[in-house]
Specification:
Elements: H1 4-19, H2 24-31, H3 35-42, H4 50-59, H5 64-68
Helix pairs in contact: 2-3, 2-4
Length: about 70
C-alpha cells in the first residue's frame, strides 16, 4: 500500500531527476541502484531505506536534508 510519505518522496526524486535532465537509468547508475528500483521509488511503491535515500541524494548532488525537505 502506498502512503503519502512514499508518494511525496517519489515525486521529489522524479522532479529533481527531470530538472537535471536525467533518465531513471542515469540516476540509477549514479546512485548504484537498479533502474526498476528508482521507478518503484518514484511511484511510491517502495519503502526506501535511509542508506538508499543518501545514495540518491548524492547522485542528485543534494544534501540529505534538502531531499527530505517539505515531505
Amino acid at each position: 500500500m502506498r502512503t503519502q510519505l512514499l508518494v511525496k518522496f517519489g515525486q521529489k526524486v522524479r522532479n529533481e531527476r527531470l530538472r537535471q535532465s536525467l533518465s531513471q537509468e542515469q540516476l540509477a547508475a549514479k546512485a548504484g541502484l537498479h533502474r526498476t528500483y528508482i521507478g518503484m521509488i518514484e511511484r511510491g511503491e517502495k519503502n526506501i531505506t535511509l542508506q538508499n535515500i543518501g545514495k540518491i541524494a548524492v547522485a542528485l548532488n543534494m544534501k540529505l536534508s534538502d531531499i527530505l525537505k517539505d515531505i
